Amino acid sequence: MRETNKVFHLAIPCKDLDETVDFYEKLGCKLARRYDDRVTFDFFGDQVVCHLSPDNIDEKPKMYPRHFGITFLDKEEYEEALEYAQKEELPFFHKPMVRFEGRQEEHMTFFLIDPANNLLEFKYYHDSSMAY
Predict the structure, then answer these.
(1) Domain VOC, which positions (predicted)?
(2) Alpha carbon distance 48, 20 (integer Å)
(3) Closest-CA residue to 57 (of 6, 101, 13)
(4) Are the beta carbons of 90 and 112 closer than 8 angstroms?
(5) How far is CA 16 from each of CA 32, 45, 80, 89, 94, rounded to the nearest angstrom?
(6) What CA–CA distance (Å, rounded) separates 93 from 99?
(7) pLDDT mean across residues, the chain
């Protein structure tokens, strides 16, 4: 289980700092720092750093195996995030769906794609014991 005195850190490539800031702020993330070569965000309580690296963009991203995101433990928060993404017209890589229907690990999920083709998954497990 997560301890509150720790922050997960993820570094990913971006192709343009301005469009990256625009996307993540529309997602609700707080810009923490900005430098000439990277931006750092409070990503739902964790740290995501987008490094300017236009030559390292995945031109044909796939959902698996490479993505990151949030697993909500509260269904209402998941639904609010989905509604917010739709309201802000954020780009969906995959529309909302249910995975593993009828199994213990059944969950609701959707994927967004950021301006550098990084994939973000947002999900909610009906059985919270499956979150880890």
Answers:
(1) 6-125
(2) 11
(3) 13
(4) yes
(5) 17, 23, 28, 19, 23
(6) 16
(7) 95
Q: Is residue 38 classed exposed, middle or buried when 0-12, 13-18 and 19+ CB atoms within 10 A define those classes?
A: middle
Residue 77, in any domain of the structure: yes
Share of the chain above pLDDT 90, in %: 90
| Distinct helix (H) and strand (E) counts, the chain | 2, 8
pLDDT, tens digit (0-9, with 9 covering 90-100), for 54-113: 999 999 999 998 999 999 999 999 999 999 999 999 999 999 999 999 999 999 999 999
Indicate the residue type of 70.
I
The CATH code of the domain that includes 93 is 3.10.180.10
Q: Which run of H or of E encompasses 96? A: strand 92-99
How many domains is the chain partitioned into structurally? Answer: 1
